[in-house]
Structure formats: C-alpha cells, structure tokens
Write a structure and sequence with these properties.
Length: about 200
C-alpha cells in the first residue's frame, strides 16, 4: 500500500482542481447564498457515500466494463443538470427580487447536490481508479476501501464547505454591485448546462 502521506497529498491536489462538484457549489453559493452553498456541499458529501460503497462492493466495476450501464448513468446525470440549468435560466424573480436562482428549500438543494454527485459516473470511475492504489493486499480490502473513502469524503466536504463560504461572500458582493438577479441567474444556469455538456 502506498503511504497515507501520499494519499493526503493526492487528495489535496484533487480538491484544488476545479470540477463539477466545485462548480455546482459555487453556482448555488453565488446564486442563492451561504445556506444553499453549505447545503449543496453537504449533499455532495452524502452523495459520495454511494460511490464509496459502490467501489467497496464492486458495483463501480460494472460502470467501467458495461458501456450501456455507464452511458445510462451518464446521460441521466447530464439530463438532470440540463433540467436544473434551464429551470434556473427560465425562472424570473418576483417583484424584482435579487435572487439569482429559483427559490428552493435547503432540503431540495441538499438533495440536488447528492443526486448530481450520484449521477456522475466520472466520480465512480475516479474512486475505482484512485482508492485501490492505497489498498494493501494483506488486509481486508472492503474495510480499507471504506475507511479511505470516508477520509476522502470528510476531507472533501470540509474543503467544499470552505468553497461555499468563500463563494457566497463573493456572490453577496456581486449581487450588491450589479443589482443582480438576471445576471446571477444566467451565470448559475449556464454553469449547470455547462456541467452537463462537459
């Protein structure tokens, strides 16, 4: 097994590389504020549990080896992001309210974060490729996979919470500066659609 210091170093490099999860959190934080950003970050963290246990039980191997399964999940995820994007783009704030995205409860934002993460097969394939590099053949592979996955998820959630707090602060300044529901709504919706096309 490769040492834990290498594991943590690799995690850090992955965290600071922008990806769909980070862009989703930024879009929610800028568009709907700090609470929504935090809810989306926590939702993504919960979504990661699916991938951790999928890898531990070998389900992610199915996505890697069966093209139909991979494509089904990939297209479902893309369709969901496009739905979120166009819903945001087409929603107008009532009475000139400076809300960048359509009002959603925190539980809904949380669920959307989890679903967005779960429906991203790239996350499953990443876990399938990354975690085994740190698993010892002499130990319990299932237990090691779950332990490392939880470390990764917990650390990633802390990082995403930091991203949410930072982006929401910037979003507040942006709203005040441009008065902006229309611009923020288009920014947020475009991010969602862009993720689906990526």
């Amino acid at each position: 097994m490769t040492g834990l210091p290498v594991f943590f170093a690799a995690m850090f490099l992955l965290f600071i590389t922008p990806g769909p999860d980070m862009l989703y959190i930024i879009a929610r934080s800028v568009g709907q504020g700090r609470s929504a950003g935090l809810a989306s970050a926590l939702g993504i963290g919960v979504g990661c549990f699916f991938h951790i246990f999928a890898v531990a039980f070998g389900l992610a191997e199915l996505l890697r080896t069966v093209p139909v399964a991979y494509n089904t999940v990939r297209y479902a995820g893309a369709a969901y992001l496009i739905y979120l994007g166009f819903r945001t783009l087409l929603t107008r704030s009532a009475g000139g309210d400076a809300v960048a995205v359509s009002p959603s409860s925190l539980s809904r934002v949380f669920a959307q974060g989890a679903i967005t993460n779960i429906l991203n097969p790239k996350v499953a394939l990443f876990f399938l490729a990354f975690l085994p590099q740190f698993i010892s053949r002499n130990g319990n592979a299932f237990a090691q996979t779950v332990r490392l996955g939880l470390i990764f998820d917990f650390s990633g959630t802390l990082f995403n919470v930091t991203v949410a707090l930072t982006a929401s602060s910037i979003g507040g300044a942006l709203r005040n500066r441009i008065g902006g529901a229309p611009a923020l709504r288009w920014l947020t919706g475009s991010v969602f659609v862009g993720l689906a096309c990526g």
